[in-house]
Amino acid sequence: MAIKAVLLDLDDTLWPVAPVIRHAESVLQQWMHEHAPVVAQNYNPEKLRERRNVLVSSDPRFQYDLWSLRHTLLSQVFDEHGVAAEKADQAMAVFADARNKVDLYADVKPALQVLQDKLTLGTVSNGFADLQAIGLAHHFKVSIAAFRFGCGKPDPRIFLAACQELGLAPQDVLYVGDDLLLDVQGAQQAGLKGAWMNRQGLKIEDERHLHIKPDAEFANLHDLALWL
């Protein structure tokens, strides 16, 4: 398999995302207690999540533009409680800053350096993490985020756009991510090779996933470097 570039997912591939989101929502809640107390009194993170889950079905864009989804929700609840509209922007800045305080998996920094010396690297993500703020941007030639691009995985367009920026044919590119449907199948359907980052040692048991055959499977980025 002649791989000339590797594209990586971010959340749950380079860092665990659940604790990051919990922390960011907690930081936002603390900020609202100080700057929008009437909202904080009526909406804790769980209630905001419930309302966000309802809002996501109201606009197809919210399926991939998670920044706009959260911003729209905050704008709505702030407006309903008579809080100035510009505070929604401030709240999102607070959330985004905390969202970028990630704890990388231990293998990530050393393995990225090894991989970077072997071939070209890039990222494609449905999230809105800021690789510059996180300190990883210098490893990647291409970084595409769904909320800026206009569609998200598994849409073939986002994978193909990354290949185009790399100047490579899809069959020369390997995409590595933790989600079998979005990442592995999505990449394969766009003509790329699709590899499963299976850090938890999971088995493919869900009937929705049984038909998916990853081109490779890795427990960490060191495995990827060895495979290459």
From TrEMBL:
Record key words, sorted: Hydrolase
InterPro entries documented for this protein: HAD-like_sf (IPR036412), HAD-SF_hydro_IA (IPR006439), HAD_sf (IPR023214), S-2-haloacid_dehalogenase (IPR051540)
Coiled-coil segments: none
Signal peptide: none
One Gene Ontology term of the molecular function aspect: hydrolase activity
Top-level taxon: Bacteria
Pfam families from the UniProt entry: Hydrolase
NCBIfam families recorded: HAD-SF-IA-v1, HAD-SF-IA-v3
Name of the molecule in the record: Putative hydrolase of the HAD superfamily
Organism: Undibacterium pigrum
Lineage: Bacteria, Pseudomonadati, Pseudomonadota, Betaproteobacteria, Burkholderiales
